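G., the chain you wanted modeled:
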Amino acid sequence: MGDVWGGLAGMLVALPSAIAFGVLVFSAIDPALAGQGALYGMMGAAAMGLVAPLAGGTAGLVSAPCAPAAAVLSGLAALLLAQGVPPERIPGLLVVTGLLSAGFQVIYSLVRGGRFFKYIPYPVVSGYLSGVGLIIALGQLPRLFGLDGEQGLIKGLVSPQAWRWPGLVVGLVTILAMVLGPRITTRLPAAVLGLICGVATYFLLGLVLPDLLTLEGNRLVIGPLGSDTGLVESLSAQARGLLALQVSDIELVVFSALALSALLSIDTLKTCVVLDALTRRRHNSNRELLGQGIANVAAFAVGGMPGAGTMGPTLVNVTSGGRTRASGLIEGVFVVLVIVALSPLIAWVPIGALAGVLLVVAWRMFDWHAFALLRHRDTILDFAVIATVVVVAETVGLIEASAAGIGLAIVLFIRDQIRGSVLRSRATLSSVSSKTRRLEQERAGTLPLILPH
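Predicted structure as tokens:
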């Protein structure tokens, strides 16, 4: 029963976040595709929840779409759109990116590369995650205020007449519920409590503004999932889009897939380390990477979003009683049940509520402790590496940010080795005297040497 309750609690955290991440990715293509994005996130959560516990083996780990995946894929979608790729082809390219990322993870496990991820310098990981959090936050602020895509963020924020006040109110209520809710009750996860309060606020506003209670053409809610013809037909349409892919398309996404695989692997193994401390066990990093790769292949097969072993759902699962691999599998079963039974209701989830959830997630992802490195002269350069990674991630891209961070970390390591003082000592029998006290005649060698019989 502990695994059942843990799986249920893990689902309550993983599924709302997966929906929000899916909407984030597809909204980068077109805000009207929010419903298809929600389906993208849910199918990824279902596939990973069912397959990762069986293939991975780390007890208590919950796998689902995560923030790093959302940041990489939404950035890739925006890049492909800017390069002139037709919007209808981008969903297929995103799914292929997940497949390539899964393939890289399988390769990491086969070459026993799991142990190498722990050697990635802390400033690079900190800057990368902070950059991901900042990318998510900047992407969600326009949706929180209900700004049109043609308006810039700065121009929209200083133009209150362009704000959609119902969506803003719903988002602010969601944020407050997520921040203050855990101080009142810990029975419900913060994300679930925030969504409940956001949805309730939306329908209360609908009593005053009847237009909010209309689903068709309402850009303040997710809207119908996938297509009007149903789930199976929507997945079939995605499969037909995949068949139209060409080899040249892989060149467009291979570097993003490589960065995504590294991020997902780091996120998974970091969660496993924390899980080991809670359960007094030790995970097998190579086997877990293999399991995550297989799970992401399953997500590709159903047209879902890739993911990793995520910290939030995993901690909720363990603290709610989940102790074995069955808890992660049960979480996946609950995700499937919710998709089957409650998909029509998900269409009414407000965009502002999802934006509020993601803004809180982004705030918690940002490594605020990095500013403590400024207090000491010896760690200022480490902070400079973090800041460089964040700036490059925002201005150029996540792939370039990782390369810049690792390059700077190597330079700092070489600098420390050159400047460091290494003491070497050379000892010989003529320069080291014995601790045994001897007579002067013995030192001079005038006494006869007596050997034992």
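The two ends are 77 Å apart (CA to CA).

Shout if anything looks off.
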